[in-house]
Amino acid sequence: MEDLGKVNSMQLYVMWKNLTIGMTSIIALITISHMLPYFFSPVVGLLTAAVLYVYIYNTRTTHVTSCMLVPFAMLYGCIGYSFVTILINVLYAWGLKSIPKEFIFFEGTFLPSLILSPICFFVSGYFLLFRKSLKICRSCRVTGAENYEGGMLRQVMKVEAPFQLRNLTFIFGLLTVIIWTYFLNFYVNISFNARDKYIFIWVAIILFVLDELYFIARYYNLYLDLKEEDEIITQEELGDMSAKTYIRYYVICGNHLFVDSHTVDPHLSYKEVVDTPFLTKRSMNGIPVDEVKRIIGNMTGYGDGELRFFYGRRNSELTNHSILRYFYFLDGKPEDYPDINVEGEWMDFERLKYLYSNNPGKLGDTMVTDTTRLATIMLTEKTFDENGFRKSKIKMYNPSFNLLDVRKSNLDFQDDKWINISMFNSDTPMFRFKRWWRRFLNGSSKKRKNGSWQ
After folding, report:
1. Sign for the pseudo-dihedral over CA of 333, 338, 343, 347
2. Residue 349 and residue 401: Cα distance in Å, rounded?
3. From CA 128, how far away is CA 366, in angstroms rounded?
4. Which backbone phi and psi does 389 adopt, to 5 degrees?
5. What is the gyration radius of the CA atoms in the chain, in angstroms?
6. 343's torsion region: left (phi>0), alpha (psi -120 to 50) or beta?
7. Burial of 454 (0-12, 13-18, 19+ CB in 10 A)
8. Across the chain, what does the average pLDDT equal?
9. Neighbours of 407 (CB within 10 A)
10. Are 34 and 201 spatial neighbours (Cβ–Cβ below 8 Å)?
């Protein structure tokens, strides 16, 4: 599975491109707001947000995996700017005349940087601090993590996504301090002179351009480092690759999982992690179920186990490569299988759950991904019904599960239904209203699609 762990050179480019698009959108918003009549500024902000949304949507529908936190942060920054600007001007129109004229787009010289910089600072700071609980990040970890497949891209994303957000938070924080210090201490509301233009417009542009140059150098050096370590896969190599199907088996007996505690981490040769030792690869698209069972029977030395499909995904970059996961349940006790054909040990699932919760670095990356999906689906189904409402009236009730429950379960782990419920359920604030609103929008969309609305 080494090919799946490498970084596509296009992914580094898209990572830089996302940051560039985000910063360029802010530059465009400031510049165009000063070029057009000032009352167009909120409209420009909303149009900028619309452009960012289209970019995010188009990027997420391509076969290039990348983190979209920065474009999302800038999208919310632009929307926040537009609504705060409109609110301030509405309050002014209603008689709150103490608002400085620089915030009013109908009078005097409107200065969008005074509002935009602090809003983008707070938005990027919020995304940085709460990124692990953001819906986009939770969705990526649970449903999109298989795109990384525990490869170097995951390691790069874990470092670069928060670094980009820290960088933006610092830039907007610095801009906020500079602009507001100048506005409160040196700005004279008589005429908009060259010095004012430099502070309120050009300082932001200069900082963003310098930041762009830094990130160009940063990602070029990162590309060279990864290439030197043979962690880069080129577009030509992607095109030349033949179809491959990878299979991961999880061999289970009772509440024990057979693992190899000395699996070498593919990215850190000196590090050992816990992972399943039952891996195989075939140069074809798909494998018949009988062949899948025959393979695991030969690998374990016990062909009378119960084979059950876990889930599978086609890699987003290598579209002719797929990874399938299977459970293989053995009857009896672990002591009944002392001579399994591969090196490893039976690990109690409670021990595995402890490692997963407290020290996930001890587990292989793909095992963490698979355990996350398994736990999310099992616990969500025990906690909520199919409509997202809690089954128990006790809100603090948190169920648990084991591998015996997995074997008894009839859940379809391939289906994302319970994943979606885990991210949107009765514990979500204003759940009933949001649920009604989603149904209303979906119903309206279907009516328009079917031509019911004229």
Report:
1. positive
2. 10
3. 25
4. -95, 145
5. 27
6. beta
7. exposed
8. 84
9. 14
10. yes
Query: Is residue 373 within 8 Å of residue 144, measured between CB atoms?
Result: no
Give dist(CA 383, CA 385) in Å, integer: 7
Token look-up 């505690």 returns: 261
If we measure between CA atoms, which residue out of 118, 165, 116 comes closest to residue 137?
165
Helix axes 349-358 and 365-383, enclosed angle (nearest 10): 100
Q: Which residues pair with 346 in a beta bridge?
A: 258
Query: Under a CB-based contact definition with an 8 Å cutoff, are residues 265 and 364 in contact?
Result: yes
| Range of lowest pLDDT (43-52, 56-65, 123-132, 328-337) | 56-65
Q: Rounded to whole angstroms, how far apart are CA atoms 452 and 194?
A: 57
DSSP 261-315: EEEEETTEEEEEEEE-S-EEEESSS---HHHHHHHHHHHHS---SEEEEEEEEE-
C-alpha to C-alpha distance for 264 and 5, rounded to whole angstroms: 14
pTM: 0.72
Sign of CA dihedral 176, 178, 181, 183: negative
Mean pLDDT in residue range 385-407: 87
Residue 326's DSSP bridge partners are 249, 309
Classify residue 396 as exposed, middle or buried by CB count within 10 Å of its CB (0-12, 13-18, 19+). Answer: exposed
User: How far apart, in whole angstroms, are the C-alpha atoms of residue 141 and residue 144?
Assistant: 6
The amino acid that residue 129 corresponds to is L
Is residue 363 helix, strand or coil?
strand
Q: Quick check: helix, strand or coil at residue 337?
A: coil
Q: Are 241 and 320 in contact (CB under 8 A)?
A: yes
Contact 184, 350 (CB under 8 A): no
Q: Average the pLDDT over 106-131 and give the result.
A: 90
User: Cβ distance 254 to 404 under 8 Å?
Assistant: yes
Burial of 237 (0-12, 13-18, 19+ CB in 10 A): middle
CA dist., res. 168 & res. 129, Å (int): 13
Q: What is the DSSP string of 207-270?
A: HHHHHHHHHHHHHHHHHHHHHHTT-EE-HHHHHHPPPEEEEEEEEEETTEEEEEEEEEETTEEE
Give the position of tokens 């009765």. Answer: 426
| Contact between residue 272 and residue 262 where contact means Cβ atoms under 8 Å apart | yes
- Residue 390 is classified by DSSP as B
- The pLDDT tens digits for 225-279 are 888 877 776 655 555 556 678 899 999 999 999 999 988 876 666 788 999 999 9
